[in-house]
Amino acid sequence: METDTTVARTVLVTGVGRKRGIGAGIALHLAQEGWDLALSFLPEYDDRVGLERGPRDPEDVAELCRGEGARVDLLPANLADPQVPAQLVAAANTRGDLAALVLCHTESVDSSILTTSVESWDRHYSVNARASWLLIKAFAELIPPHVREAQAGRVVALTSDHTAHNLPYGSSKGALDRIVVAAAIELAGHGISANALNPGPIDTGWMDDDVRASLTGQTPARRLGTPQDTADLVGFLLSPAGGWITGQVLHSNGGFAVK
Question: Per its UniProt record, what SUPFAM superfamilies does this chain match (predicted)?
Answer without folding.
Answer: NAD(P)-binding Rossmann-fold domains
